[in-house]
Structure formats: C-alpha cells, structure tokens
Amino acid sequence: MDLEDAHLKQTIAEELGAVRRRSLALLDPLSEPDLLRQHSPIMSPLVWDLAHVGNYEELWLLEAVAGVRAGPRSLDDIYDAFRHSRTERVALPLLGPSEARTYIAGVRDKALDVLDKVEFDPDHQLLGNAYVYGMVVQHEHQHDETMLATLQLMDGEGYRPQAPVPPRGRRIDKAEVLVEGGPFEMGTSLEPWAYDNERPAHVVDLPPFFIDTTPVTNRDYLRFVEAGGYDDPRWWSEAGWAHRQKAGLSAPQFWRKECEGVWTRLRFGWREDLPLNEPVCHVCWYEADAYARWAGKRLPTEAEWEKAASAEPGGAKRRYPWGDAPPSPELANLGQRYFRPAAVGAYPQGASPWGCEQMIGDVWEWTSSGFTSYPGYHWFPYKEYSEVFFKQDEGRFRVLRGGSWATDPAAVRTTFRNWDFPIRRQIFAGFRCARDA
Questions:
Q1: DSSP string for 133-191
Q2: 54-70, pLDDT tens digit by residue?
Q3: Is 163-437 a domain of CATH 3.90.1580.10?
C-alpha cells in the first residue's frame, strides 16, 4: 500500500468513526420507548434510522465492495427507504435499540476489515476517489440531521440538549448585494464525493440580480405575520393559499403568540422568547414564497443562489463561499455545535465573493427551483438517490441549498442540492430573497 492510499484509508476510518459517534450520541439520552415510538407520522421511528444507516453501509461497503455480509438479507427489505413509507415503518418487525446497536457495530467491524484490504482503482465507479465511502459517510450524516428533526418534534419535555451559546451577530448595513450578470460554472465534475445530481459542471449565463446579504430573520418574518400576511391571499400562490388554509398555517412551526407583541419558540423542549436576530426557521416553501412576494421580492433560483455563494467576479469557482478551506467554527455554524442558528452577522469571515453571509450553515435556504437534472446528467451509483425524484411532477419538489446548523461539514458544499416537498416545515429551513437588477 502506498502512502497516499494509507492516508486516504486513515481519513475514511476517521470519518466513519466520527459520524457513528455522532449518531450514537444523539440517541444515547433517549429511553427505549422514545426510540421505538413514532413521534410524527412524517418521520420514522428513531430506531429505524439507526439500523437503516447500518444496513445501507452493509449494502455498499460490504456487499457491493467485497461481496460479503454481516446480517440477514431480511433486513434489506425492512430498512429499504423506497419500499416502506415513513408512516408504515413503525409497523415493521424492527430491530430493537440494543439489537440495532449490535447490528451496526458488526457491520462497521467488517467494513473496516474490508477497507484495510481494498484497492482504490481510479477507473472503478465506486472505488475511484473512494466515492462509495464518501457516499456512506454523507448518508449517515444526512440521517443524523433527519433524526434531529424528529427530536425537535418530540412531545412532552422534549430532547433538551445542552450546548454552548452561539457567537453574537452584528448589524448588517447593506441589506442586499448586486451579483453581476454573465456566465458561471454551476455544479461540479471534480468534487470527489459529490452526488450525481450535482454533476456535471456546466455553464449557466445569468442576468444581474440582487440577493439578500443574510437570510430573512425572525424579526423580518414577524413583520409579515403581524401585518396579516397569512390572511391575505394576494401574497400566496394558488397552491400555497390552498395549503395555508388546509393546514391552518398562521406562523412558522413552533412559534406561539403569548400576548400582544410577545412571541415564543419551542426548541427541543424549551419554550423561549423568539430570538429576533436569528434566521427564521421551520417555514415551508409556500411560506417563504409568500413572504418574498409581500416584501416585493422573490426567492432566488438555485443557479442564482450558487453563483452568489461560489462564483468570483471574473469566473473562478469556490468550494465554499469563503474559499476552498474546510469549514471551521469561525466560518460557519455547522455540525449541531449550538443546536440552533446563530444570529445574522455572526460569521463575517464566511462571506461569499459578493458579500453574502451565512450561505453555508444556520438554515437550509429554499430556492424557487424545482428539482431537475443538469444537462448531461447520468445517475450513479443507483437511480433511487436522485433520478426517481426528477421524474415527479414539475415543481413537486423544491431545491434547498446551503445546509443548516444540523448539517455536518462533511455533507455540505456550495454545489450540494437538497430537496423536499413545498409543504415541509420540520426541516431546518429558512430562506433569503432576491430581485431582478
């Protein structure tokens, strides 16, 4: 084994270990009933997620790479996310918490044995650039964020994590920035662990546009609420107004009006005064779209978002808004460090080439774009990650960008594409606005 492969294997083992410690630490404080219970019909029981990440690892790092197994094939059906909806999973013969922990530990032991012997053939679809290992690491981190969304939905006293206070924000004098028109490279063909839907890199030519310097804050959004924005169909699309009426929406999820002018927010079991300087969170796409219309603006397209986040004037592309250096605590709020967004203005060092701040971390940002493929797209290594969602009705899924405070640094970059139904609010999502120049 040459030194380069040895270093890569060490990095992979460290990443696998880090994400597993994160998964187990998230669930360790919970009782067995809380792990088995379905806390919301739109979320899986937490113990399903725990065993699912192990089964996914078994399929890709054991069977696909080396043709070996650690558990019975019957688990492949139970933990197949495409065979059973989240609502149905609670009725499946799931592994119990201790059984799930034993199972995923056994898979991991064998996966590390395989890793020790594997050769990274650059022409192999799965092993070139160790792609399959990056896919598995990111997959587990994504499920950890999903489990955090489930934990936020817990009733009773809730989850109640202990975390330090995030950095203070600062006053932002410039509400929006101008992004020059012209071509830029969207997506990537070089990022070794990028998903298929981020590929290939292609040139997109955009007219100039303005985009908000920071995400919309709770203070901003509260003005919309108190101005009667939820009661005025002028600001809502036809589908959005129908959903707002059907769902009885009157404010972001977890907000509550205590008395005139006083609002609180529920956060992992704590009810706290609404932090006015934080980015608004837990709004669906329809709410974000309505606010933008009320403000005389619109949501950015995902191409506009990516250009504002990554393209330098003159054409160079950055991996992150601040450059190519990996995320650090001074640059972005990631990895559940504070279990909440930081106030706007907290990360001036993380600004994009155009001056946009907090485009990575804090809250996912809704864009106006539906989830579709890029020109020249080819699925790999399996259709179910992206392609099946492209084939849905146009606009059924909306793209989110940038990651949230719950996203791990290993699972975010300026080309990363997330997507969800426009009605979803349990995700840690906010938005920023744009307008034509």
A1: HHHHHHHHHHHHHHHHHHHHT--TT------PPPPP----S-SEEEE--EEEEES-SS-
A2: 999 999 999 999 999 99
A3: yes
